[in-house]
Structure formats: structure tokens, C-alpha cells
Amino acid sequence: MASFTPSLPARSFRPSRLDRLAVGLASLSLPLLFILLWSSGYVAGKLALPHTGPLTLLTLRFGLAAVVLLGVAVVTQAPWPRARDWGHLAVVALLMQVLHFSAIYFALHHGLSAGVAGLLIGLMPLATALGAHVWLAERLNGRQALGLVGGLAGVALVVGGKPMAGAGASYALAALGLLGLVAGTLYQKQFCAHMDLRTGSGVQMTVSAVAVAAFAGPVEGFAIDWQPELVGAWLWLAVVNSIGAFSLMFLMIRRGQTGDVARLFFLVPGMSALMGFVLLGERLELQALLGFGVSALAVCVAAAKR
To answer: Which of 34, 78, 92, 37 is nearest to 252 (CA)?
Structure first.
């Protein structure tokens, strides 16, 4: 006689508090890591620029990042973009990489501190959120708008505590870099969000390297003082900053709204200034610290789910 085994009712598994905590920590890890990696780029650039010109440094940075990314894409057999998508990738590269970093590096080269560079790029959330609202039809609720205004107020506090005399050209260059980053972010969200990160980023870095190299030769003659400080900063910028930070950024853009990703940039000024203080000896004023605190609080308000 066949044996009979009673079937047990299916149980609905509910995540424990430990599971929810693990998920929460995982969701926080990407933004925190992104802030650390992105903020370090301004300090690394400041360390490298005494040994070479801005365009030459970008040629080294983009060129090495392109080699690494394209190598990874070939080894892992990543899917390549469609022919019609290559133009979109080139536009993102010219805006987010070439225009953004060329302007920022020239500003650093002319004396802008790493903390102030991160501070001015910290204006990105307001511009990006407003641009996403107009161009991508992403909604802004009251809490998000309050967070954006609060973040902008924190940035204004830091700017107000910095001497402005003689720094007009540097600030104008940094503002131009901000414009390139915002436009590139919105364009990436609209036209390139579906592309593979390995091949898409590889194509972007290749386009960027060729574009800056075309000007680095005639303008700077590719003059390089090969010092350990330059080599270390170059490797950090190419591998950690160009590949790591931008991959995290594109990944977060895919997972959420562009405005949510952009609000993370309100934390970049404080982290950049802290790194500049530790590594470069740049001063931290009390008013600046207050501004960083206001910006951080604004991020919490804007990103809160409840």
C-alpha cells in the first residue's frame, strides 16, 4: 500500500527585524560609498595638478579608465550598445566627463580649494531636480522641495564664509563644470539608462580620452612630472573615481529617480572639505561646518520615506 504523507500548509515567510536591518544597511551602503569615492576625486585632482596640466591629467585618467573598462567588457562578454546609441553615449561623455572635469580641473589649477570645488558641485541637486521635473516629468513633493531648499541654504552658508575676492574665474569655471554634470546626468537618465555599464562606460571613457587628448597636445604638450604623488593620484582617479564612483552613480540612477540621486551631492561638500583638511591642510571654518550640517539634515529630510 502506498504510503501517504500529509502535505503541510505553505507558510508565508515574513522578514525578521534582522533581515530588514540587513536590507536597510545594504541600501545605505551604495550612497555612502558613492559619497566617499566622488568626494575623493577633488582632493586627488588637487594633488596631481602640480605635476601636470589639467587636460594632460584628464587624458591619463580617461585613457586608463577606458582600457580597464573595455578589457573587462571583452573578458566578461558584455553586450555592446546598438549603433544608434553610440551617439548618445558620446554626448554624455562630452558633458559629464569632458566639460565637467575640464572646467573643475582648470578651477583647481587656478587655486580653487578641493572643499570649495565639492561645495559648488553640491549645487547639483537643486539644478538636477528642477531639470528632471521639467525635462523628465519627475514629481517634486513638498518634503523633497523643502530638502532641496535646505540643502541650497547649507551650500550658501559655506560659500558665504569663503573669501570671494580674486576667485571669480575659478568660480565661473566650477559653475561651468556643474552645468556639464547636470546636463550629462539628465541626458544619461533619458537616453542611456538601459545600457550595460561595462561597455557603455568604456565607450564614454574612450570618447572622453580622445576629446581631451586632442587639446592636451597643442595646449600643454603632454608635459608630465612623473612623481609618486602624481602616479598615485592618477591611479585613484582612473580606477576608483572614474570607474567606481560613476558606476555607482549610474546604478543608483537606474534604481531610483534622478532627483534622489542628485540629493546625495549635498553631502559631497562636507566630505570634500574634510578630506582637503586632512590631506591638503585646507581650513574648515565654523560657518562652513554649520553649512555642511544643514546640508546633511536636508538630505535626511528629502530622502525620508515617512
So the answer is: 34
* pLDDT class of 26 with cuts at 50, 70, 90: very low
Compute how many other C-beta atoms are within 10 angstroms of the C-beta atom of residue 187.
18
Q: What is the pTM of this model?
A: 0.78
Residue 30 banded pLDDT, cuts 50, 70, 90: confident
- How far, in Å, CA of 57 to CA of 52, rounded? 6
**If you write DSSP's letter for every residue of the chain in order, what string do you get?**
-----PPPPPP-----HHHHHHHHHHHHHHHHHHHHHHHHHHHHHHHHGGGB-HHHHHHHHHHHHHHHHHHHHHHTTPPPPPGGGHHHHHHHIIIIIIIHHHHHHHHHHTT--HHHHHHHHTTHHHHHHHHHHHHS-----HHHHHHHHHHHHHHHHHHHTS--TT-HHHHHHHHHHHHHHHHHHHHIIIIITTS-HHHHHHHHHHHHHHHHHHHHHHHHTT-B---HHHHHHHHIIIIIIIIIIHHHHHHHHHHS-HHHHHHGGGSHHHHHHHHHHHHH-----HHHHHHHHHHHHHHHHHH---
Q: What is the pLDDT of residue 12?
A: 45
| Tens digit of each residue's pLDDT (9 = 90 or more) over 81-130 | 988 899 999 999 999 999 999 999 999 988 888 877 887 777 776 677 77
Tally of CB atoms within 10 A around 211: 21
Q: Please state, in angstroms and rounded to a whole number, the distance separating the CA atoms of residues 47 and 275.
A: 12
Mean pLDDT of 195-209: 91
The string of DSSP letters for 52-77 reads: B-HHHHHHHHHHHHHHHHHHHHHHTT
